[in-house]
Specification:
Blueprint (H helix, E strand, L loop, with lengths): L1 H15 L7 H4 L14 E7 L2 E13 L2 E8 L4 E8 L4 E5 L3 H8 L5 E9 L4 E12 L2 E15 L13 E2 L1 E2 L1 H4 L1 H11 L5 E3 L6 E6 H4 L5 E8 L2 E2 L6 E2 L3 E2 L2 E6 L8 E13 L2 E15 L1
Parallel strand pairs: 9-19, 11-19
Antiparallel strand pairs: 1-2, 1-8, 2-3, 3-4, 4-5, 5-6, 6-7, 7-8, 10-12, 12-17, 13-14, 13-15, 13-18, 16-17, 18-19
Length: about 290
């Protein structure tokens, strides 16, 4: 995959190299794709030297209310944003939940803002990242990573972009709901470590009524480090007990130690149509 991505990016970079056109009209006649405020939708990857850094990528959507963006900011950190178009760029601001918004308003939490500017002359996007915080009742921006270049993400590559909705549990908490509830109640998050080499259970616990009509069928796909696990696709969800559905992958063998990102894409199928319910995630350290 890396060789393919490098070849595509080298091709795109070679198009954008050399003397820049005098204006965008001249650039529109070149071989590079037309990049403008109305062509931001899709997937993009950060340029690192002559290749792509797939740990920094994003996906942009557009609807009647404007833009939404899913940003992966390195090391599996991902945020959901809403975008507002300005004269020459779009300002994407991180969407916070209710409790986070209270902390932000009180000046106890920062959020991300990402400015995305189309650059037809270089066939790319210029991306500037800042942190935003409240100080004396006013927003203050603090520069982080600026003037990074992004190119279209190669088509057909199975990478996850979607932000997380809910927790995923590992180890004993994946097998017993009482342990999962204790971890959530005590730490507001699942335990984030497990021994490498053992049979690793992964699971989510949901209110069955909120998942969908009981006449539907339910299953999930497992992703590891943002790539789909071929042997763990369309895994049937467990039976409902006392109103709770147990989404369990009983055994999974991790290939290597370190920090990893797990995702369970939960689906319902009603009248032959498979529909995504939510994505459960976990960042965990697998240790020897």
């Amino acid at each position: 995959m890396e060789a393919y991505l490098r070849a595509i990016l080298l091709l795109l970079l070679s198009i954008g190299c050399g003397e820049e056109p005098k204006d965008d009209a001249a650039a529109s006649n070149s071989k590079c794709p037309r990049i403008g405020m109305d062509t931001l939708e899709g997937r993009w990857v950060r340029v690192a030297g002559s290749a792509g850094d797939t740990t920094s990528r994003f996906e942009i959507h557009r609807d009647d209310q404007g833009y939404t963006g899913w940003f992966i900011l390195g090391n599996f950190e991902r945020i959901a944003t809403r975008g507002v178009a300005r004269t020459s760029d779009v300002a994407f601001t991180q969407v916070l939940n209710a409790s986070e918004e209270k902390l932000y308003t009180a000046g106890k939490l920062q959020k991300r803002r990402i400015y995305v500017m189309p650059r037809q002359k270089s066939c790319s996007l210029k991306v500037t990242q800042v942190k935003v915080g409240m100080s004396v009742g006013a927003e203050q921006e603090m520069s982080m990573r600026s003037r990074e270049e992004y190119l279209p993400f190669p088509e057909g590559q199975p990478f996850a972009f979607r932000p997380c909705d809910e927790h995923l549990y590992i180890g004993k908490a994946a097998l017993k709901r009482s342990i999962a509830n204790w971890q959530k109640g005590t730490h507001n998050a699942p335990e984030r470590s497990h021994k490498l080499g053992k049979k690793i259970p992964l699971a989510a616990w949901t209110d069955a009524a909120s998942d969908g009509d009981a006449s539907c069928t339910f299953d999930m796909d497992l992703w590891f480090d943002d790539r789909p696990m071929k042997d763990h696709q369309a895994v049937p969800a467990g039976k409902v007990k006392k109103g709770t559905r147990h989404w369990l992958i009983q055994e999974w063998y991790a290939p290597y130690s370190g920090n990893h990102h797990f995702q369970a894409y939960r689906y319902k199928t009603c009248n032959g149509k498979r529909e995504l319910i939510a994505v459960n995630c976990l960042d965990a350290m697998l240790h020897p």
